[in-house]
Structure formats: C-alpha cells, structure tokens
Amino acid sequence: MHMLGRWVAQIYSHTSWVVGHIINGIYPSYCVECKVLVEADHVICVLCKKMIQPIATRTLVEGTHKISVYAASLYDGPLQKLVRQKNHGGMYSSMQLGRLVVELVDCERIAPDLLVPIPLHWRKKAKRGFNQAEIIGKAVAKKLSIPLVECIIRIKDTKPQHELTRLERIANLEGAFAINPKYQNTMSDLIKDKHITIIDDQVTSGATINAMARHFFKYKPARISVISACRK
Ligand SMILES: [Zn+2]
User: Fold this and answer.
1) Domain-by-domain residue ranges, the chain?
2) Cα 101 to middle of ligand 1, angstroms
3) b or e along 8-30 (b: 16 or more beta carbons within 10 Å of the residue's beta carbon)?
4) Domain spanning 54-231: CATH 3.40.50
5) CA of 47 to the centre of ligand 1 (A)
6) How many angstroms is it from 206 CA to the middle of ligand 1?
7) Could you give the 3-state DSSP secondary structure of residue 228?
8) 228: CA distance to ligand 1 center in Å?
9) Angle formed by the axes of helices 207-217 and 166-173, to 10°?
10) Whole-model pTM?
11) What separation in angstroms does the CA of 205 have from each of 41, 164, 202?
12) Rounded distance between C-alpha atoms, residue 54 and residue 149, angstroms
C-alpha cells in the first residue's frame, strides 16, 4: 500500500507538471535525445547538451569572396535527429532546432544585419507545410531583433544534393535561385554594405550556399556568412 501510494504521488506529480505546462501554454518538454523531462522551454537535457561538441567555423570560397559558416554541431546526434524530422511533418522539431541554434551559436558575435533563409521551392514547401531554414531563421531574428527577409526564391524544384554526383550537383543548382520579384527594386538598399547571413539547417558541400550567395554579390554586401544547425 505504501508503494502504491508513492506511485500515485509520482504519477500525480508528473501529470500535474504536464497539465500545469499546458495550462501555461508551454508544451511539455522532453529531451530530444534521451527523452527525460526537461525544464519548460528547454529542448535537451544538461547531460545530452554536454555531448554536443562545439565546432570550428568553416570557410566556403565563392570566386574572390569568403563565406564563413557557423554551425551548432556536426551532422550527428540530437541535431541530426531534429533536422531529419522535417521529412516527417516535424514542424515542432524545427522550432526546437531554432531554439538550439540560438543557444549554441554565438549569434551576437556574428552580428548580422539581415537574415535570409535558404528558400524551398513552393511545391516542396506546400507539401511539407513549412521551411525548416525559415523557422530557424525566425528564432535567430527574434533573438537579435533583426529582419528575416525572403528576398531570394527557389525557382527550380531541385533534387536533394546528396543523391547526386559532383557534376550533377552543379547542374542541379544551375538557375535554381532568383531574386524575389517583391524585392526587385529594393535589393540594393537591402544588401549594400550590410552583413547578410544565410540561414540553413544543414550545410554539406556548400554548393547550395554558394549558388545562393552569387545573387547577393552584385549588390556589394559588406559580408556574407551562414548560420546553420549542422554542417559536414
Ligand atoms: Zn537528454
């Protein structure tokens, strides 16, 4: 009876914790890696967070330009799990990813003026219901109080880069991006002398970033960088 009482008390305490959070409009949080209950608004427990190793900045080269890629982690562990959820309707996972990026990447030090998410083709976005890069971008924009602008659109429904050979990857990205007609007349004001940060969920070869960055250079930005959840 004593044991039963303790179980009931434990179940009650767990239930009231969850109910309390729902009442407060906060989704109950479980660690994305080991599933233990975590503090409201947290994505990952303290122990699993310690396993995410910070990684060095990677530099991409596009012509005479250098593009720094700042990522929260390598493409493994909890971040990889969250990135992959986008293929299974995981919008909540994308929001968690955004919170982790804000926590793990020193966005203040990178100090962008403007964020631009890697766009999805409208067909893919309609099918998936959201753009993971845009959701991560919203979290960064909120943290830094700077705008997130979809000034680049994807006009070609490209194949996933990882399914292709090196040459096929280049052809796949040919003509993939264009200036959003909505910003055609304001691109110069938006980009000139500004630090533009492209937001992505995973950077692999960097070819997608380079293809998108090419659209910015003619407007003479001060700098182009990338904030990504993971990278290879
Ligand atoms: Zn954990």
Assistant:
1) 1-27, 54-231
2) 17
3) eeeeeeeeeeeeebeeeeeeebe
4) yes
5) 6
6) 30
7) strand
8) 22
9) 40
10) 0.84
11) 33, 12, 10
12) 28
Structure tokens given for 100? 């982790």
The Cα–Cα gap between 71 and 91 comes to: 20
Q: In this predicted model, what pLDDT tens digit does every residue of 81-127 receive, in sequence order? A: 888 888 787 788 888 889 989 989 999 999 999 999 999 999 999 99
Distance CA(113)–CA(173), nearest Å, equals 26
Closest by CA to 198, choosing from 185, 216, 220, 218, is 216
Q: Please, what is the Cα angle at 106 between 121 and 139, to 5 degrees?
A: 40
d(CA 227, CA 195): 12
**Do 200 and 226 contact (CB within 8 A), yes or no?**
yes
Q: How many residues does the chain have?
A: 232
